[in-house]
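Pasting two entries for a bug report.
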Amino acid sequence: MLVNLWGPDKTISYAGCVVQLFSFLSVGGIECILLAVMAYDRYAAVCKPLHYMVIMHPQLCLRLVAVAWGSGLVNAIVMSPLTMTLSRCGQRRVNHFLCEMPALIKMACVDARAVEMLAFTFAILIVLLPLTLILVSYGYIAAAVLRIKSAAGRRKAFNTCSSHLTVVSLFYGSIIYMYMQPGNSSSQDQGKFLTLFYNLVTPMLNPLIYTLRNKEVKGALKKVLGRQQ
């Protein structure tokens, strides 16, 4: 996608389009599940601090990661072939920055409602269900924070969750708008903008969001800026 955006060549091979679609569906699904796993981790850290190491033991972490990767790969394995095999009556122009599922489905010259409904079902399982778990986790976290008497304790709990909440808001806001609605209800321009946002802007901000709340990173950054001055 970056090559096509930067250079004069705006074409992609059929195989390249398949790989791009599979990659985006799998990695996007994995990130949705991992964000829910991270919310559970924050819940354990804030609501069960004395039992955190018992709850989040290495075996459970491995299982949760395996579920995340498995879910994303199943989504891609099922939806990629169904999307790419839709008849397009010779149409080869993708009105988008990349081979994304909604754009490819809109190119079909046959009835694609069955594929759209299956995509919507996967979106419920991979997007909406993890988001529900995230909201439930933060509901318990909010209740626990309100019971904390000291301002320092509340600040510490907020710092534990703030970076994750920011990423969830940025990522899920655009993903839900793209995938949790009927295929023809959003305009192409809106779809293009949101695709660029959650594929370029959000990943670019992730390192800043996560690391700038880390004391060691803050200290190293201050040292680097101090040397330059």
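Entry 2 (this is the one that rendered wrong in the viewer):
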Amino acid sequence: MSRGATGWCCLVLWLPACVAVHGLHIHDYLYFQVLSPGDIRYIFTATPAKDFGGIFHTRYEQIHLVPAEPPEACGELSNGFFIQDQIALVERGGCSFLSKTRVVQEHGGRAVIISDNAVDNDSFYVEMIQDSTQRTADIPALFLLGRDGYMIRRSLEQHGLPWAIISIPVNVTSIPTFELLQPPWTFW
């Protein structure tokens, strides 16, 4: 796809993530849709880890997004049983991105989504890089804006739900613009 075509695609899709943030373009993002709870039934944008973790070989039509307990996931998880064969939602801070990914992997998680711990962050994506330990991780690791992570966790708390149901990854280029439901708090 040419440079002009990428700009055209971003304009048509009206994705705030299309604005180049540190040189990122639409193909540098991964998208997932929350299916339940309904009040946050939006398509969210995340960035994959730069130099560690796996990739999605399978599209999950319905999989649980389970908030880790404790949220920073730097050690043993009290709800690790619920993360097995699901995707964990983790908060940034306390340890490296790779350490969080390995904790989720050790609990049998299929992927980890790490949201920024700055709940007012609705536009700045952090580049997740490997720490200096030479360890590896095999599951996909994604970075989510702090505002998005906060809103997902808040909705789950309000509804008394232990997890959200999501579809991941979502191919946004196949969704008509008028059907592309992004969180209203991310529009610039």
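Dev reply: Rendering is fixed now. As a check, the viewer should reflect this: The two ends are 26 Å apart (CA to CA).
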